[in-house]
Sequence to fold (378 residues):
Amino acid sequence: MSTALEPIVCAVVAAVVVVAMTPLVSMLARRIGAVDLPSGRRIHTHPTPRLGGLAIMLGVLIPTLFLLPVDSQARALLVGAALVGLIGAVDDIFTLDPIVKLVGQIACAAIPVSAGLTIDHITLPIMGVHNLGAMQYPITIVWFVAIVNMINFIDGMDGLAAGVAGLSAINFAILAASLGRTDPAVLAAAIAGACGAFLIFNFHPARVFMGDSGSMFLGFAIAGVAVDGVLKSVATVALFGPLLVLAIPILDTSFVIMRRIKHGKPVYQADRSHFHHRFFTIGWGQRKTVLAMYCWCALLGILALVIRFVPYRSQSGHIEIVGSVVLGVCIAIALGAALYLVYVLEILKWRNTPVVKLVRERSGEGPLSGLWPRRGRS
Fold:
């Protein structure tokens, strides 16, 4: 099979498997009681089966096991991803202690790392390539565990985690292919196909959730794709690419952890301080919130692709005018989108608090302004 066709075939096969298997795993989840019930923190309003991640796992693993070569690093990554997905499935059914899940994630991350899939260097603009030496092993394990939990954290609204993971995978597939990294490009394409097909069942109103089995599997697989497909290269995009592609889960998790530390709460304690919860709190519906997050993710992914493909500096070091303008416009658009979302989450949220509403109404700006006389007038 042509190398160029492998990612496309992998994506199509993954999508077909997910479409076929999702109704079956949904039935299985209902039979064994792996059902997510409505509660105070959750947004959904009716019991919804979990374990949809098992269909995603099968969708990714079936084509990649056939198409990827018998390579120790690639197979170690798939084994680690499958095992962390099974840990997530056990959590979906029985609810594991957070420490147990963390230990399991570290153990699974050690599998590809022990096979040599590590971040052995970082490429910094102007400063060049810097080898990490022995630090590559703990740094890579932290990377795997961090991305696993970041994808898991954003899985709190219909279609959000699947859409963000799918968009990220598309970007990594393109970046990896452009860097000559065929194996991670094939795996990323399979992830994208599986996520796209799963959205048929998971977009609002969701008929099935991916659960921890899906979010942990996707986080692990994407972390591995980022390492093997982008971070191990010496291109300029090696450092900024993954950070931009995964900016949404990285920012969301960072803000949530800082907020929990600020309020003296355990970092693993679930709450409603995630971006999607805060959008929902100020009145955005699930579809509007998820589509806005998709757009933000897509803009940042496009910026990563522009950094990779648009020449903004010549080989002699001179600035390319056209490329620099394109890059500047993309940065401005991505920054503008981020500022708009900050405005929505912070400024509008503050303006719509009960106290501020009352003040505005008493000052003649609200719908109840006629109930109070304005000061300074007789």
Summary: Residues 353-361, 365-378 have pLDDT under 50 and may be disordered. The chain has one domain: 6-309. The radius of gyration is 23 Å.
